[in-house]
Design a protein that fits this description.
CATH architecture of chain A: 3-Layer(aba) Sandwich
CATH superfamily of chain B: ABC transporter involved in vitamin B12 uptake, BtuC
Oligomer: heterodimer
Number of helices of chain B: 14
Structural class of chain B: mainly alpha
Number of strands of chain A: 12
Helix content of chain B: over 70%
Number of domains of chain A: 1
Shape of chain B: globular
Largest sheet of chain B: none
Largest sheet of chain A: 6 strands, mixed
Distance between the termini of chain A: 53 Å
Strand content of chain B: under 5%
């Protein structure tokens, strides 16, 4: 299966946010989306998933336009991991993950034993089976994010969209979430992920899109695309990209002449 | 997994306990009153009724044309209000929402008051109340869909508040114009809710609408969980939130309007009962909905028994549910918020 976005223009009625966005995604790839606050990353995601009506362009799943697909069909192909949040009601972790199975059941059906099993398997895959009976609302931010990833996994979709999965997590939790993102790609899922940290793209991205003002500033393989020039241009600050011994790259603020 | 099964098992006993409580309350309500009866008398009276024999004792008449219809009306009123309250709380992601939120009670009250004002027969007053309740929510829905570009659920609630207030103003006007010796007390009494005047026909006229409304709510009860996460997440999980919300609002409005039209406005049940049910069985709608309905039925019947027995004149139900509901609610707020975050 592949996801193909072409000439997408997105925004709200009377309020365009971005345009001319094209990319393709295959299972096994991690596409990182970088860009300053308010450049339209979340709006782009929601438009790709069909949650917001697109203003122009096409989104195709295996050549089929998603505008012709039902909400349910899209949900079986693309799972969404929103930024960790708290619902009003304290569902258990198990119940939260179980909701990932919605698109696989008829409107009137309750989850089957197989769905309960799928939820537990997803929790086990993320190493958080011990949280199953806990209230989701009582978890830490990092744990919630893992639960939402488990829900996307239970949804069984070949593509997973993660909206700033590392936002507001401590350093350890950020690394843990990135590990899981890599594992998902290893398990042949196609990942689109937005992040505010270029190092995260270096750490687990296979390709990157650098956005500015709703348009793609640069796109391509991570190492070739995330140069000091690109990063400085999209964030409007001096940035240096440094190669560490061993070949890893990190991004730093440009040293100030003193 | 093991832990989860243990929790599920202990929760399975709760519906059974509630059903037992309802049976006990029904028997108590059936044998007490101006014609006190023993259990044996009750049994033989029911036997006569089932065998089709004509009513031969005063108890037969009292039981089948007064007490049992009233008991039955209390049960369906409580269950319906609790179900509607649970649906609205989930749908609007707010545990402080009651079935009146979209103006169904305000509309029904206005319709009933108008019927009383015109000195129409009871059946017409009920019809007016039912139609005006449904009409008000339809109006709220149309106004809300005309306003675009905001969170749809929020706009719906705001439209409900505004139009509910408008209906309240019209109601006040009718009260001023009504005959103060005859019509005004009737309007006031209706607005406070009572099952004292319930006849078998009333039960039969409300029951079909209640059943029709309950079917989609019961069938969609698992999807309510997904709806309570908000429109965007619901859609990302494969549910069409607009369609589902319309169906659920229609169903919840239908059952509320049906019971309000025969029982008058009974507050607090739809607010407090889903809350207590959530404390007991948790927020999963699959379990919450049946539990809330059973609790609502038991609570309403208990309130009605108190209303009959408390004083020589009937106490309006709306007054009792508020006297009991308000302190319980404050206690819930103070004591722990396990039912919501």
């Amino acid at each position: 299966m592949n996801l193909e976005v072409q000439d997408l223009a997105f925004g709200y009625p009377g309020f365009p946010v971005g345009s001319d966005v094209s990319f393709t995604l295959q299972p096994g790839e991690v596409l990182c989306l970088l860009g300053p606050n308010g450049c339209g990353k979340t709006t782009l995601f929601k438009t790709v998933m069909g949650l917001i009506r697109r203003q122009h362009g096409t989104v195709r799943l295996d050549g089929r336009d998603t505008a012709q697909m039902s909400t349910r069909e899209i949900a079986r192909a693309i799972a969404y991991v929103p930024q960790a949040h708290a619902p009003v009601f304290p569902y258990t972790v198990h119940d939260m993950v179980l909701m990932g199975r919605t698109a696989h059941r008829g409107a009137f059906a309750a989850p089957s034993p197989a769905d309960h099993q799928a939820a537990e398997t997803a929790l086990a895959q993320l190493g958080i089976s011990h949280l199953s009976a806990r209230d989701y609302t009582r978890l830490s931010g990092g744990q919630r994010q893992l639960v939402l990833i488990a829900r996307a996994l239970a949804q069984g979709a070949p593509f997973i969209v993660l909206d700033e999965p590392t936002a507001s997590l401590d350093f350890g939790n950020q690394l843990m979430v990135l590990d899981q993102v890599r594992a998902l790609a290893g398990a042949h899922r196609g990942i689109i992920m937005s992040t505010h940290d270029p190092d995260h793209a270096f750490a687990c991205g296979s390709r990157v899109i650098a956005m500015k003002d709703g348009r793609i500033h640069a796109q391509g393989p991570v190492r070739a695309t995330l140069t000091a020039d690109t990063l400085s241009a999209i964030y409007d600050v001096g940035v240096e990209v440094v190669e560490l011994p061993g070949g890893r790259r990190v991004c730093l603020p440009a040293a100030r002449a003193s | 997994m093991v832990e989860r099964q243990a929790v599920t098992r202990s929760l399975a006993a709760i519906p059974l306990l509630l059903i037992a409580a309802i049976v006990a309350l029904v028997i108590f309500a059936a044998v007490t009153g101006p014609y006190d009866a023993s259990l044996t008398q009750l049994q033989s009276s029911i036997g006569r009724y089932l065998s089709g024999a004509p009513a031969s004792t005063p108890l037969d008449t009292v039981l089948f044309s007064v007490r049992l219809p009233r008991i039955f009306a209390a049960l369906i009123t409580g269950a319906a209000l609790a179900a509607a309250g649970a649906v609205y709380q989930g749908l609007f992601r707010n545990p402080l929402v009651s079935p009146d939120i979209l103006g169904v009670s305000a509309g029904a009250g206005l319709g009933a008051a108008f019927g009383i004002f015109l000195s129409l027969p009871v059946i017409a007053i009920q019809g007016f109340a039912f139609a005006a309740g449904l009409g008000t929510v339809a109006l709220v829905y149309m106004v809300a869909s005309a306003v675009r570009g905001h969170e749809p659920a929020l706009v719906l609630v705001l439209a409900g508040v505004v139009i509910g207030a408008l209906a309240g103003a019209c109601l006040s006007l009718l009260k001023i114009l009504a005959d103060p010796y005859d019509q005004l007390p009737a309007i006031t009494f209706w607005l406070l809710g009572s099952l004292a005047a319930i006849r078998p026909d009333d039960v039969w006229s409300a029951l079909p609408a209640v059943l029709v409304g309950l079917v989609p709510i019961l069938l969609l009860r698992w999807r309510m969980n997904v709806m309570s996460l908000g429109d965007e997440e619901a859609a990302a999980l494969g549910v069409n939130p607009r369609t589902l919300r319309l169906i659920l609002v229609m169903a919840a409005t239908l059952i509320t309007a049906a019971v309000v039209s025969i029982a008058g406005i009974i507050g607090w049940v739809g607010l407090v009962i889903p809350h207590i049910a959530r404390l007991v069985v948790g927020p999963d709608f699959n379990r919450l909905l049946p539990t809330a309905m059973l609790m609502g039925a038991a609570y309403m019947l208990l309130i009605d028994i108190i209303a009959k027995g408390l004083t020589t004149t009937e106490t309006p139900l709306g007054v009792l549910t508020a006297f009991i509901g308000a302190p319980v609610f404050i206690w819930l707020l103070a004591a722990g918020r396990r039912g919501w975050s």
